[in-house]
Amino acid sequence: MPFALLKDRALISVSGPEAEHFLQNILTTDLDALNPGEAKPGALLTPQGKILFDFLISRTDENGFLLECRADVADDFVRRLMLYRLRAKAEIAKQDQVLVTVKWNEDSTASDSDSTTHADTRFRNVAVQRSYGAASDGGDAAAWQALRIANGIAESGTDYPLGDAFPHDVLLDETGGVGFRKGCYVGQEVVSRMQHRGTARRRVLIASAQVPLPGPGTELTVAGRPVGTLGSTAGATGLAIARIDRVKAALDAGQPIMADGVTVSLAIPPFAKFGFPQDAAGVEEA
Description:
This protein has 286 residues and is an alpha+beta fold. It has helices at 19-24, 74-85, 141-150, 188-197, 244-253, and strands spanning 3-6, 9-15, 38-45, 51-61, 64-70, 91-95, 100-104, 117-120, 128-132, 202-208, 219-222, 225-234, 237-243, 257-259, 262-267.
């Protein structure tokens, strides 16, 4: 079975009798819907609704959680969680030298009692398991990136910078990373307003071309006007975050979408429920 060792990930443990109540009140993920053996996406937001930290969260036991995040921001994430903890009875710590491995297309799933292996619920059309603590040598990081791109799964770093994107921009509303029926959390008012008014205009799209795509951060333009930015790439395919109203207007007008001289096609990820606006010209400008 294919697998990849993710050397750029870290784990933060949050445990104690008030750990769930504490996390439920600050994170976008609805922990009431988090089952044992699952790893769900989520974010800690600014009060303005922008993503400060993105992660995958899973249960270790009745009073314990693991937050898997980028290794380079893990210490900052711990400090931010400490800031919000106040007097809550919860212990927060970064786990040292814990390896993260992803496997996909396995014939069997992990047991619910196995607290080190979790199903990555962001993926709808392929079974992906994340294992913590044990790893195999080698692996295929390129195949993992290609799988993530094909399924429209964006992550901070190569796909978008922290502090710049709303949860809707990176499809956390589509992948189960936002609990719209839970109580308040940091940035909740802005996110709920975007959901109820349907004002999300930037979205993750799958990019493709006839030649290899340029690298992450390359601007997407139509007639010299910016419409978005490329993220992770794997040969002639990649992820992009783009203004769907401007993309639709370009499609309607037959104008090419360019990325550093390369003509790019943009498509909505197969699992997504959103669509291109019917009247792109009538969408309010940002």
